[in-house]
Amino acid sequence: MKTDAAILARRTPPNPQTKVVVRRAFFYAALAILAIPFVLPTWWMITSSLKPISEIFAFPPTLWPANPTLDGYTKAFEMQPFVQQYFNSLYISFFVTVGTMFISSLAGYAFARIRFRGQNLLFLIVLIGLLIPSEVTIVPLFQIFNEMGLINTHWPILLVSTFGAPSVLATFIMRQFFISLPIELEEAARLDGLGRFAIWWKIAMPLAKSALGAVAIFTFLHIWNLYLEPTVYLQSPELFTLPQALTRYTDAYGGQLWNVQLAAATMTALPVLVVFVIAQKQFVEGLAQTGLKG
Amino acid sequence: MRSAKWLTTAGLLATASLVLAGCSGAAEPAATAKNVELRMTVWTSNEDQLALFDAIAAEYIDAHPEVESVTFDPLPFEDYTTTLTTQVAGGKAPDLAWILENAAPDFVDSGALAPIQGTLEKTEGYEFDDLNAAATKLWKSDDQLIAYPFSTSPFVVFANDDLLAAAGQPTAAELQAAGKWNWEDISEVGSAVNAATGKAGFVIRDFDYTTWDNLATVWLGWGAAPWSEDGAGCEFASDEMVDALTFLHEAAFEKKSMPGPGATADFFAGESAFTVTQISRASLLAEAGFAWNLLPLPEGPAGEYSMVGQAGIGVMAQGENAQVATDFLAFFTNPDNSEKLAQWFPPARDSQLNAQTLAAANPVLTADQIEDVVVPGISTGVVRPSHTDSAKIGQTVRASLDAMWTPEADVAAVLDGVCESVEPILGN
Amino acid sequence: MTTESTVLPDRAVARSGGTGPRKRRLTHKQRDAVAGYIFVAPQVLGIVAFVLIPLALVVYFSFHEWNVLANSFTFVGVDNFERFLGDPQIAPVMQATGIFSVFLVFFNITIALLLAVMLNRSLPGITFFRTLFFSPVVVSLVAWTIVWGFLFQDNGGINGALEVIGIDGPNWLREGPTAMASVVIVQVFKNVGLNMVLFLAALQGVPQELQEAARIDGAGSRTIFTRITIPLISPTILLTFIITIVGSLQVFAQIAVLTQGGPGISTTVLVYYLFQQAFLFGEFGYGSVLSIVLFLIVLLLTVVQWQLRKKWVFYEN
């Protein structure tokens, strides 16, 4: 693979400065071309949110709004309790993420470190959760929550996401991490008389920051973009989450109000993107030290 | 259902013992006839419409202390029937529901809806006999009204006169005056518009080469029908249907008077000369930056015709308060409220099918347009084809019809194939 | 129902374990085991409550004909399973499912690995590019799919671009093979960023010294990559492989928006067919059979991959 230019650069004898510059230029050009399919749709989404409807559908599509307007943004707040919906998504994502970090690190630690009877069977049971598409269980789950009177509350989403299938990947990641953690540290703590809970909390968890970071990002993105469950469980607009709210920007006849939808979609995506930009260095480098690297 | 309920309860008990205690307080008390909370699923999230619904409901609650609240629950239009069915499956049916016309036979024939005719007839001042016979046909089972058709909206043609002028073509009114308001001539004009401007000729709105039942607005002009009156026999392969779809195929692939598959053109953004859609879309023209006109559906080889799209309100039989819900429906659709609702939803009452009532409904339309296009459309229009198992039929026909939308397709052969695949479902 | 009964003994153990610590007479090992049960309890009980019990209900539904609107629920024995075996749609649906998953996984993993290798260096602007490639992950799936739907139109952006270089592009979403390609493309670009970040992290964990040593021994960069880098990150590759393949079998919103399973039924994958039967056609009984089939396929694939890991994953732990 010639792509690893850095390796090549180190292998070949020292080059004149110009050669490096040319090689760099090629490298950046390649990246820029590769980036087009990743960036263009998002770019179109953001710029179109500033266009009047007639321009959104113009062919060929315009890359920059000819008559920029904030109409879509103001309407997004007028038509639905968008602030409330934003808050719903934020708090649900927050609690599910924190809850998942807690539960998956406990379970992942136990599956990796503690020996107990039935361990493999229990792990298998948990893994089944990773294999079930949510479409499969949504009808029985709806019935169960309906019997409990929890339809049109956030409980089904909070409970199923934190304890059910979506948290299994997190447990799997945590288990892989704890397996790779040197056991000597824990043995020392054990000689000091620490119990399992204390070892988990005081020794293992502080070392697991990077894996927990990965779990946090996975979980947050999953819940932030969750669509099927909210549409099934929630009925009142003030309880909606963002992905669900996005589809409700329609006119009186069910026709989509594209500029408003795109404005709302942009407001949904941008903050997460900004957080990634800020956190990505720590995230990537943190992940590098987890069990994910092998 | 008894055993399913039992098992669900068993699952529930097991689950309840496992989940956190924190949520146990939320169990709903069994509803008594005193504090009735009604819920109606709708597919509009338009604030003005919801505000009107709330106002009507508030008036009803004032007079009926046993009703605590009426909630209008907007579900997204795109998967409205799916979401409603899921709620019914989960045992959480609403008390009342809007029903799309293509799902009407499924709901009307299945027993999912509670009978409403007796209550409506008995309600004072309801004037049950005022309901238009053509408009209620789809919503009856054994001559009994099962759901109320609250919106009967005619299909019409909107024309972009500016675009026609830019292509050097006569305006829509001129075409009509010259006796050229028929499909062949419209296709010619559309072809010329496409050649001159690159924009589209005519667009069957919402067809998009998938929702084929919208093509009924065209094939009715050829006297074609997808299946026999009783719904048991396939008629896609009839000569009339072959001729009608040959016309569309030529329009799409030879004359280029209709955008081909995979191409979009939004009339309301000024991208096509004509579009066939429901009158209710007229409101989108309030912001249109071009001169437009409204005309009835063009004449086909089989003569003049008109078609309506409908939506109904039904009372779900599963609900605990079906009787209260029916009473509310009788109030919601009484003559006074029907007139208020006519702002958006053309009524099925003969006495309200006149220019005065409907002019208030569509401020962008002229009195002439209402008199010439809207009123005759509603009173003579046939309803879009419908059948039980509509989703399955829709999907099966779509999959077979896909073969039609290539330039070299053999129209008659494809339609034979459609019948072959859809016949077993029709006969069910 | 069998799943239910096999779980019971363990749950019983977990319960008695829960009251254990009060006795204070347990050996060190026993105390440890008790802690183990307590630690895994929330997760295991959550799976039992929110996955296994619903799954048991799905199995129960599969022996019934359930007409939601008519409120009828009748036991029909194995009728739904017989229908599955005789369903002429199943063969093309399975074929579409296989094609979709194979291409999706192949392109997703390859592109993610390629990007990770390219971006695994510290040059100015690298963070910027990483963000660009990751950005689709945070965009709402529905918005993402709709935009691509525009691009794939006959007169859309992609054919417009192809025209510039003199190629007459196909009508992407209207012809079987290109429709499938379109669905794969949309899904690949949406999620490659996530796998890329995982690979990037794995690559940064590969010790420089190993590569240096190999280089001193005269290995070329290609050899270093295939013989050292790939084996060292093989556990990550396996993990992303499993996540991606399981995810590929659960994709349906994209298909619903882009092609609705068409043209014909060329892009009707199993999960979409399941959704159609259960939610669009109201055939929950038959839909339940399809759910069980989907579950068994995913289970089988995972078991196979898990077994294979012993062969080609370089090391674990």
Word description of this protein:
The complex is a heterotrimer of chains A (294), B (428) and C (317). Chain A has 294 residues and is mostly helical. Chain A folds into two domains: 47 residues, no CATH class; 219 residues, MetI-like (MetI-like fold). In chain A, 72% of the residues lie in helices and 0% in strands. Chain A is built from 15 helices and no strands. With 428 residues, chain B is an alpha/beta fold. In chain B, strands 1, 2, 3, 6, 7, 8, 9, 10 and 11 form a nine-stranded mixed beta sheet that branches. Chain B has two domains: 225 residues, Periplasmic binding protein-like II (D-Maltodextrin-Binding Protein, domain 2, 3-Layer(aba) Sandwich); 193 residues, D-Maltodextrin-Binding Protein, domain 2 (3-Layer(aba) Sandwich), CATH 3.40.190. In chain B, 41% of the residues lie in helices and 15% in strands. Chain C has 317 residues and is mostly helical. Helices cover 74% and strands 3% of the residues of chain C. Chain C contains 13 helices and two strands. A two-stranded antiparallel sheet of chain C has the order 1-2. The longest helix of chain C is centred in the N-terminal third of the chain and has 34 residues. Chains A and C meet through α1, α2, α5, α6 and α7 of A and α1, α2, α4, α5 and α6 of C.
Topology:
The complex is a heterotrimer of chains A (294), B (428) and C (317).
Chain A: H1 5-11, H2 17-48, H3 53-56, H4 71-79, H5 82-113, H6 119-131, H7 134-147, H8 155-163, H9 168-180, H10 184-191, H11 196-207, H12 209-224, H13 228-233, H14 242-246, H15 258-288
Helix pairs in contact in A: 4-15, 5-8, 5-9, 5-12, 9-12, 10-11, 12-15
Chain B: H1 2-18, E1 36-42, H2 47-63, E2 67-74, H3 80-89, E3 96-100, H4 104-110, H5 117-122, H6 133-136, E4 140-141, E5 144-145, E6 147-160, H7 161-166, H8 172-177, H9 183-197, E7 200-204, H10 216-219, H11 239-253, E8 272-278, E9 292-295, E10 307-315, H12 322-332, H13 335-341, H14 355-361, H15 367-380, E11 382-383, H16 390-401, H17 411-426
Parallel strand pairs in B: 1-2, 1-3, 7-8, 10-11
Antiparallel strand pairs in B: 3-10, 4-5, 6-8, 6-9, 6-10
Helix pairs in contact in B: 14-15, 16-17
Chain C: H1 2-19, H2 28-61, E1 64-67, E2 72-75, H3 79-86, H4 90-119, H5 126-138, H6 141-151, H7 157-164, H8 176-204, H9 208-216, H10 221-248, H11 253-258, H12 270-280, H13 284-312
Helix pairs in contact in C: 1-2, 3-13, 4-8, 4-10, 5-8, 8-10, 9-10, 10-13, 12-13
